[in-house]
Amino acid sequence: MSIKKDNNWEPRILAFCCNWCTYTGADLAGLNRMKYPENVRVIRVPCSSKVNPQFVLRAFQKGADGVLVCGCHPGDCHYSTGNYFTRRRFMLLQRLLEYNGIDPKRFQAKWISGSEAAKFRDTVAEVSAQIKALGPNNKFVGAHYDNTVMEKEAEGGKD
Amino acid sequence: MARIGVFICHCGTNIASVVDVEKVAQAAKSMPGVAFATDYKYMCSEPGQAMIKQAIEEHHLDRIVIGSCSPRMHELTFRKMLKATNVNPYMLEIANLREQCAWVHTDRAKATEKAINLVRMSVAKVGNNKPLHTSMIPITKKALVIGGGIAGIQAALDIADCGFDVTIVEKEPSIGGHMVMLDKTFPTMDCSACISTPKMVDAGAHPNITLKTYCEVESVSGYIGNFEVTIKEKTKFVNHDLCTGCGLCQTKCPTKVISEFNQGMSKRPAIYIPFAQAVPSKPVIDENACLKLTKDKCGICEKICPLGAINYKDEVRYTKEQFGAIVVATGYELADWKKMYPEYGGGRYEDVITGLQFERLVNASGPTEGHIVRPSDGKEPKDVVIVKCVGSRDPKKGKSYCSRACCMYSAKHAHQILDKIPGSRVYIFYMDVRTPGKGYEEFYDNTRRDGAQYIRGRVSKIYKEDDKLIVKGEDSLLGRPVTVEADMVILATAMEPAPKIEEVVQKLGISMDKDKWIQEAHPKLRPVETQSAGIFLCGTCQGPKDIPDTVAQASAAAAKVAAILCHDEMETSPMISSVDQTKCSGCGFCVPTCPYKAISLVEVPGRDGNRKVTKKVAQVNEGLCQGCGCCNAACRTGCIDLKGFTNDQILKEVDALCL
Ligand SMILES: Cc1cc2nc3c(=O)[nH]c(=O)nc-3n(C[C@H](O)[C@H](O)[C@H](O)COP(=O)(O)OP(=O)(O)OC[C@H]3O[C@@H](n4cnc5c(N)ncnc54)[C@H](O)[C@@H]3O)c2cc1C
Fold this sequence. Notes:
A: about 160 residues; four-stranded parallel β-sheet
């Protein structure tokens, strides 16, 4: 992997955040006017266990430089056991990704509660810095995938 | 083709001061499917909403994206607004441009770029939204309370006073639980029976309350508003419809066994009413003790019963009932210290008793008519040691939690001994004294002033020497060992959840914490709710607590129940999982992932070539599903999906963010 020496390069990081803990924590960071890098985009899901490994693979394939999956602390899941599934699924996925040459730092699962605004800010800043140091991800980009259906839709939309 | 409207809110200057809102609206115009885009000062305001409604009409929009504050703030507001249009309220997505953009960034160019990106994500998602419809489920206006201690009684009375029918299922022959066993209650020292038995009588006589004593919950199915519960009535061998509770049978029964109510310190007959003020005041036959039932001898009670109420051929009965809501109030039990503490004699010394045994000893209607005497020889003890935290706050003994009531009831016991036995001395071994309640600290102070000696430290050993119990411990404040020669020792043993709580929890589909106390939905904000909608908890089944806290929780649970039962039907969230049964392979992987047991495999007619066959497929119970989506990721064919957050919608979001 070649690391671009472009100082203006900003990574693209996707964060799947559960509605009840991390998304709330992120909102609280806003209420407290905490500052963190712009390169993280949050996708709201009801529970971290809704996140299908497929979403993560798709993100890497489409050129995301890092993916975060965030939920309630184990034991605190709004749906009682969801994040236990998340934890198991993502331990496996992380190993699969590593096997495929994706640095494990690019894919992390974090537990951030609705009150941990500072932890949200710090996590985002830390992950963002780590990924910035790793440089762009181009591992799966351009990998063959039947995108025709989607592309057609996208084209249709532009009309 | 979708016709999307995008509305970017300035939120006064909250968003607009950091994000170039006009540029965002401009950019939205070229996004796929967008038919209209604009920005406005306050989207949530009356004129803002009117402007959106007008745009919907003018531009024939069929779905909208609002770029504003967090969806946690105004999603409901905008859904309500859509109800008044012909756009379905779920054809809405909100891009979080305030909490997660403007408020956390300072660089205008970068924040604006991010805002455009977030709007693009929402536009991509909304393009795949489908109209969703809430459905109404009817509500059975009747509550079930499991456990008839003070918690269950209070909850039942409050619900019944709201005009709803309540059934109390109590496993023992009488309601009352632990509170009726107590003598006096801290901190006011009012007689426990005097304040609890009137409540028991009220519950027994209330026109809206049905008591099902000597009964247990056999199985539970269904969901909020519509639980179907099978109740098991154990064999009483006495027909309570005929019995008047005259009590003649009790006096003539020749068998005597240990009395549970008096904590093993007296005997009761095999046909028995557990205590004088029992509700209902009608006997049951202990089938393990009765001579007729064990050896086919005796039969006296049948002969003398003037009403012919005795029925030795009684059988277990099951009844099915519908309930709209359930309150769990199964209370606590004292941990069996005998196994945990061989160093305290492990039960070999009769004069080492538990706090509950002391309550019976000091109670005027107890085995000694209120005289505090040693169980071994009936002598009045002069030196009494009270040991606190027996089992509690000791991970080595298996329980790390504090049992909460012991500091106070130990002070109460000390006070009672000093008060009733002139010249007596009381030594209390403690780790800490915790008295955080109204009037509690003052109560503890008074007990010390009465003369109770508090020794900070644990007791390591109790053994017998002649007539005395030798209590060896450590005074950790003075840093030296202490030995007390005592006549009697009272152990403040740990509270633990009711026996068989695992079964109750499993039948109800709720959860417990590491110590098997029932888990509340949220420790601060939903303290009397469980994870399962429509099932509530109160009292010591949730964790150790005293009577004031128990009663407060009970009334809180009752209010929650009334808030459900006061409706004829309730709206369910349409954002739940559903199965495309044509694609489902029936593997069943989704079933165990569901925390609400909402998924089951059912048989449906299918086709194998030309042959008609039945196949197994997953089905989601709409009343039980809470919409977490955990099952979605477990599905191999992708046929189970969460409405409002479908795999497709999220993939579209991913794609949009990666553009
Ligand atoms: C020695 C001692 C002294 C105390 N003194 C005081 C005091 O002075 N002041 C004070 O405020 N607090 C005191 N307490 C605490 C007090 O006892 C409790 O706070 C109170 O009794 C809790 O009531 P509850 O209804 O939650 O539980 P419980 O009284 O335990 O009632 C639970 C009921 O549920 C029934 N049940 C259990 N499982 C099932 C099942 N599966 N199906 C059907 N029914 C079931 C039980 O049979 C029981 O009737 C004392 C406690 C002890 C141990």
